[in-house]
Amino acid sequence: MKIGKKIATSLLIIGLGSSLMAGSCDNYLSENMAEGITPKILKGKLVSLSIYAESSFLAPKGSLISKARRKAEMKAKRRFSEWLKESIAASTLTSDLMEQVEKTDQDGNTEGVAEEISMYADTMANSTESVLSGIIKLDECMSREDKTIYVRVGWKPSLSKMAADSRATIDNEIERGESGRTSNSGSTKKTSKITAVDSYRNKSPLADDF
Amino acid sequence: MIFRKLSLLLIGATLWLAHSANAGCSISMSDGIKKPTETYSFCKNTFSSPRYQVSWYSSIEENDFVMLFNFDPRKTSINCKDFEINGKSKSSCNVLRKSLLGKPKIPYTYKNKNSKVHMVNLDHKGQSEDIRESIKNKEFIYQSSDTIEDLTETDCFAGINVDDKVVYLGYKTSNLTSLGYCIQGMESWLSKNFKSIKSML
After folding, report:
1. Domain count of the fold of chain B
2. Across the strands, what pairs with A152?
3. Contacts of B74 (CB under 8 A, 6+ apart)
4. For residues B148 and A26, what is the distance between their CA atoms, to the nearest angstrom?
């Protein structure tokens, strides 16, 4: 009886351990795509876009993981940029989007909604740079076991405006600084040690709004 | 400080001496049911030539990483180390046989009983072009880089063409350490997919 209990406990521990260790980004993947781009449209309005990308690293070495993270982020931005250029700018997709909106909208504002979507498309396609500056990271998961890092970045129309406003403020401050009107007070430098983990997930509190 | 150096030497020596009985990779993780704190990986050539060994030690809590790579000890004899300890990195390779120009003398082909291993110099335009074409045409049952872009970034390549019974190992003379990582990836895959290349052994 005792032996049987011990065996059962051991099996439970082994099973629990292996299930916890296997595919440490399972939660991330159950909520997100590995690669791709998804628009969120509410009542015919383009609310946000989520862009997903992944990148693998050759070995669980800190610098290689950092490189893979940067690569995944760049991949996501490039995907978004390509999507803007190829898909949104293409009149075929714009009309597809409009059609889709016409079909899904229940408020009887079909024409107006279609115009709004196409306006976003034009604005986004014409100012890729400013749109890209409004992209924020929403979620990230790294698995040493799979040697893969997954990232999810997002864009909202308001973020591009915020980024543009911030840029203007920074530019103004730099201009003021260069003309000698402001001075830098002694700043304290903070250092922190990065601790490595087997896998981690960093989800932004903003992620659920996208 | 001395203790740290000694422990590093010990880790290095353990990795170096660790000799897995079988080809492929042996990966072991120590401690913890929830997550491992240390990983040891030992890989050895599955195909009889070229001979190589890639071993690494990774400590999750200390963020330390040590990798040692030895390639073709009887001919070219390349020994590489790649460390990352306390946020500081060091990577270097020692090549015994060099050409008059100081480049490593790596044979292009290693012949085995039922297969060949081609050593592709990725700095060589013609040779790397063949690999790029093969990636495009999806000729490999295993490939370390899915895209040509990845190939450029990793500085190495490992691919297996079962139909032609050829293994391609790509390297850059400026970054031979990377070759160790691509070999490790391939051997790790071979450990799990041994049956698919049985005809090549």
Report:
1. 1
2. A52, A139
3. B51
4. 28
Q: Is residue A124 part of a domain?
A: yes
Interface predicted TM-score (ipTM) of this complex, two decimals: 0.70
What's residue A158's pLDDT? 75
Question: With contacts defined as CB-CB under 8 Å, which chain B residues touch A62?
Answer: 63, 65, 84, 87
Within-domain flag for A204: yes
Across B52-67, b (16+ Cβ under 10 Å) vs e yields bbbbbbbbbeebbbbb
Query: What range defines the domain where residue B63 resides?
Result: 2-200
Q: Hey, are the CB atoms on B34 and A20 less than 8 Å from each other?
A: yes
Contact flag A63-B89 (C-beta cutoff 8 Å): yes
Burial degree of B11 (CB within 10 A; 0-12, 13-18, 19+): buried
Q: Which residue of B has its CA nearest to A72?
A: B150
CA A186, CA A206: separation in Å to the nearest integer?
Answer: 33
Cross-strand bridge partners of residue B22: none
- The whole domain housing A104 covers 25-169+200-209
The predicted-structure confidence for B5-25, as pLDDT tens digits, reads as follows 556 555 655 555 554 445 788
For the whole model, what pTM was predicted?
A: 0.67
Which chain B residue is nearest to residue A14, measuring alpha carbons? Answer: B33
Q: Which residues in B lie closer than 8 A to residue A21 (C-beta atoms)?
A: 34-36
Q: How far is B50 from chain A (nearest CA, A)?
A: 21
Tell me which chain B residue has its CA closest to the CA of residue A200: B35
- A159 is a domain residue: yes
Q: Compute the average pLDDT of residues B188-200.
A: 91
* Domains in chain A, number: 1
Spatial neighbors of A6 by CB under 8 A, at least 6 apart, are: none
Condensed to tens digits (0 to 9), the pLDDT of residues A191-207 reads: 444 444 567 778 887 78
> Is A150 inside any structural domain?
yes
Residue contact A21–B36, C-beta within 8 A = yes
Chain B residues with CB under 8 Å of A24 CB are 35
